[in-house]
Amino acid sequence: MPKLNRAALSGLLALGGLTPITARAQTGAPPLITDRPDQTESAVVVPPGSFQLELGGAHVFDRPGSGASTRLVNLGAALLRIGVARPLELRVGFAGWHRAEPDGAPVLHGFGDLDLGAKLVLAEGAGFSPAVAVMGAVTVPTGHEAFRAAGLDPAFRVSLSHELPGGLGLGYNAGALWTTEGDLAGNESLRTDLLYTLTLARGLTERLGAFVEGFGVVGVSDGQPAWHALDAGFTLALRANLQLDASAGIGLNEAAEDWFVGAGISVRVPR
Q1: pTM of the predicted protein model
Q2: DSSP calls for 170-235
Q3: Does domain 2-269 have CATH number 2.40.160.40?
Q4: How far apart are CA 19 and CA 207, in angstroms?
Q5: How do the domains of the chain map onto residue ranges?
């Protein structure tokens, strides 16, 4: 869902961390743990010396109340994760190409912004103790004017995950987003929003997994409405370093988008 992906971003709960366990035992390669397709970022970094590319697209529909509807197509959204050290990865995100079709208004299309960031693992977790990681990113306004941020907008989040009995995984994030806004007089201000995610995932077979997730944003600034959504999806591990995914979701209140669907592919080199 683009509202969160733009800021940091789209775990152990994207099911990359659950479905490849058998592949790891067979190949000796570490499991492919992705930060898509859900909104919950994993508490895991890619192995040192590895590059992991996570690509995807989405179709979003929104009709705010009795107003005109908008369809948004997003293609080529990408996250490049670069393993630097055992607890650290660098991250380069690209919002991809957008096409917005508002009813009664001209169609807009163009590329989105870049995100630059890093993830640091603070604890790897054991038993009931969670794995813990912190992430920071800055959105760089490099995209088309219709989809470009108004400034260098930072984002921060903390990610935690647990391994539960019965092959279940539980992950959750909490963080903040800052968005530059301008008024007609040319004055700029920085809007603050708080974000949350909660995901429950399970491996269905040695290659196929599923997740269900709740997530949203709560505005801190005056007049900013909160929005909440649910999504669910599947991942399919084709190889130890190659994964497909598909997901869909719905908004839970008027401020959220009505529905969205997405799909993607993730690959890591070397294996």
Answers
A1: 0.88
A2: EEEEEEEEEEEEE-TTS-EEEEEEEEEEEEEEEESSSSEEEEEEEEEEEE-STT---EEEEEEEEE
A3: yes
A4: 5
A5: 2-269
Over 70: is that where the pLDDT of 22 sits? no
Helix or strand holding residue 25 (H, E): helix 21-27
Cα 194 to Cα 226: distance, rounded to the nearest angstrom = 9
| pLDDT for the residue numbered 2 | 40
Of residues 196, 135, 199, the one with CA closest to residue 161: 199
Phi, psi torsion values for 50, nearest 5 degrees: -105, 155
What letters, b where the CB count within 10 A reaches 16 and e where it falls short, cover 222-232? eeeeebebebb
Nearest CA-CA partner of 119 in 101, 102, 141, 136:
136
What Rg value do the Cα atoms of the chain yield, rounded?
A: 18
The answer to whether 133 and 42 have CB atoms below 8 angstroms apart is yes
* Burial (CB count <10 Å: 0-12, 13-18, 19+), residue 145: exposed
Mean pLDDT (the chain, rounded): 88
Question: 123 Cβ partners below 8 Å, 6+ apart?
Answer: 129, 130, 131, 132
d(CA 140, CA 226): 25
Kindly state the tokens that stand for 18: 């659950």
Q: How confident is the model at residue 131 (pLDDT cuts 50, 70, 90)?
A: very high
User: How many residues are recorded in the chain?
Assistant: 271
